[in-house]
Amino acid sequence: MPTSKSVAILAEMGTGKTLISIGIAGHLYLKNEINKLLIVAPLSITKVWEEEFGKFADFDYQIKVLEGSAYKKAEMLRNLFGNKLQVAVVNYESCWRMEKEIADWKPDMIICDESSKIKNPQAKQSKALHRLGKKSKHNIILTGTPVTNNPLDFFSQYKFLDEDIFGGSYYAFKSKYAIMGGYGNYQVVGYKNLQELTEKAHKVAFRITKKEALDLPEQVDTNRYIELEPKARATYNQVEKESYAELDSGELSTPNVLTKLLRLSQITGGYVKNEFSEIAEQVSSAKLNELEDIVEQCMEANKKLVVFARFIPEIDAIAKMLRTKKIKYSMIRGDVKDRASEVDKFQNDAETKVFIGQLQTTGMGLTLTAADTAVFYSLSYNFADYEQAKARIHRIGQKNTCTYIHLVAKNSIDEKVLEALSKKKNIADLVVDNWRSLFNK
Asked: At the topology level of CATH, where does 219-227+290-438 sit?
């Protein structure tokens, strides 16, 4: 039977799961049950934990976000000691690389933030946390989406929580809850015993939805349809035609289809690399011109704006446009290190009017409620990324109706992606059996 050492906080984005976790940790610390807390989080939100402890922790603590070289991170961890609650925050990649140092530090409690990061039981970061979780007294997973692809996603996250819940063997777990078929009987074709699976998972789970917990304002989705310029349209059509022909006559695989679709998405965003150069060539300014109009409208209304984009050349172009217009902005993309200060600038500096975020980097944990309008310049093919991004402005502290503007190139992959996301689907799920539906040919 599951024990009290573990809890799964399955809280939708913006419902305060960080606050709840800090409260649990503080309660256990004041009861002398824990003295060392390890928080493992995606790199983009490690600094957020430092800020949240500063806001909510009404008990003695010392917190360090482990960063820098491997040696520096190990030194920071070794220097965390004393009578206060010692809190170390580390990203998932560093966690498995520092497993020995963390094990030697002996955390009493481990929190896995956005625990879908360990849903793959074979990943190094998952295996490391399975081992570390066995040794700690208390474990917590935090996620609004414990299942992003299929019910089997529960296994690895719950193995970290407490192996007694679903056992330690993924093979046995899959045999119990998955129906196998296909070539060689290796493919999951369905699921079984889902009632039992759900009951076991929820014995240690605390589920919170926005609808139940918050009096949040409404959300409004709107689309701005963009006409690609004749030259850009010709480029798009040619690439689409060639991609369709190659897929129709060649070996079909999910990565191959996604690569072709990715190139089409890059064209609608305005920039694409050719095979002879690493520098992206501008093929369209249609979306950028539309975004400029939206920015001007927001500035005239004295409103802040969040812009999400998928590709670096798009982000660079957006930033250049804002600089030309002398509009102050903050930005987070993969190469930005001090992300907390970028968020703070947008939230608290009245002169910083626009936040530019790379979708894959800013999807989790950030609070951007200084704006009530977000523009999706381009879209990820993953519904979880999209949902996470929308929740950056629709969370605790937001008092206004949230408006999401999608820039969609007509008769393009943009329409297919948005249609899939509106149905809470990932493009990858449609690729093999329905790949033709993603093309206009």
From this structure: Rossmann fold (3.40.50)
